[in-house]
């Protein structure tokens, strides 16, 4: 058995990159994997980390969830959302919290909201036809509005909706920073003002629900079931849970669609096939899944593959471990490169190429697709995202033309906390039906 010190180090390779930001250290994890193998060490945030990636690493990391500690590496979420926030909980406490939140995020409940979400998204696009938008902003506004009229009913004004979006987009980059960097970043932004507004808005919303106001939405189901929990939640614990329903994943979904559309602009033949497939689209058809829309499903899978919203997942070894013949002592900081498999040519032919058709021609290992993570820490909002994506895409393709003057540079970034980017700017035009 080899020791931790025997794990090959990233610095042994000439893979240094220039960073556009003082806040993030840059690493070429894909090249390191190809040169050093599925486990290597890096110096990150002034600390030693072990990176693990590849199909075997996914199976290893997701196979035994209690071997990991999340409270320390995810403490930034605790600082923002409180001690009971699900992302930074471990073991049995985490599983109990997930079980408590499940009624609000269950597909059986979300599916009932499909017609309403579809109606809001289509109307939002129609109302803003002819306006020039960064597409990610347009999608995030539309999805937040849809959530506010379905899964957690509340009457957001446009300014209030925008404040929620701003807060989501401001606080999340801080999660990837050291405490010192995070403090400076938050002080030099509108973070504190936005957080004060968001939490006070939700405090009033939750207080009304606890006082007896009812809405037929997912959050009401969570309110009705709260006494069944081992420790029934009070006002302060329910506030971040309400936030999760309203906002969690909206930015990632909007960003993924935005980047995927960039490629579809360069593939008019495939886009024409999609348009033909959805010409008779009705939202109720999604209640039976996406078998009615195999090309749309393939397109979404390829968007998720080539633009993973969260490329890496930090964790801490909660016990002594072993991987590929190397000892990993308890307390070791781990970066799980859970979406590295998306770009391995031994799994996907020409992995850097956007090719939706591959999903209609091949079956891939389940653990090769890491967009939503895996095991007990799999993305809580996955079901909602899997509803949002086809609704947005089907409405765009069937009812609207997208006019884009030029395609911006687009890139996939494997660095922890740094999202892929493509500032796709354009206008929607309503197609005459």
Largest sheet: 5 strands, mixed
Q: Helicity range of the residues? A: 40-55%
Computed structural class: alpha+beta
Mean pLDDT: 91
What is the helix tally? Answer: 17
Estimate the global geometry from the Cα principal axes: globular
- Strand content bin: 5-15%
Radius of gyration: 22 Å
Arrangement of strands in the largest sheet = 1-2-8-5-3
The strand count comes to 10
List unreliable stretches of 5+ residues.
none
Write the H/E string, N to C.
HEEHEHHHHEHHHHHHHHHEEEEHHEE
Distance between the termini: 67 Å
Description:
This protein is α+β, with helices and mostly antiparallel strands. It is built from 17 helices and 10 strands. The chain has helices at 29-36, 55-63, 75-81, 91-105, 107-110, 114-127, 135-148, 158-174, 179-187, 191-210, 218-224, 235-247, 250-264, 268-277, 294-306, 358-361, 382-399; strands at 39-44, 47-53, 68-69, 133-134, 313-317, 321-323, 326-328, 333-337, 400-404, 425-430. Strands 1-2-8-5-3 form a 5-stranded mixed beta sheet. Strands 4-10-9 form a 3-stranded antiparallel beta sheet. A two-stranded antiparallel ribbon has the order 6-7. A hairpin with a 2-residue loop joins strand 6 (321-323) and strand 7 (326-328). Helix 13 crosses helix 15. The longest helix is centred in the middle third of the chain and has 20 residues, at 191-210. The protein is globular. The chain starts with 28 loop residues before the first helix and ends with a strand. The model has no long low-confidence stretch (mean pLDDT 91).
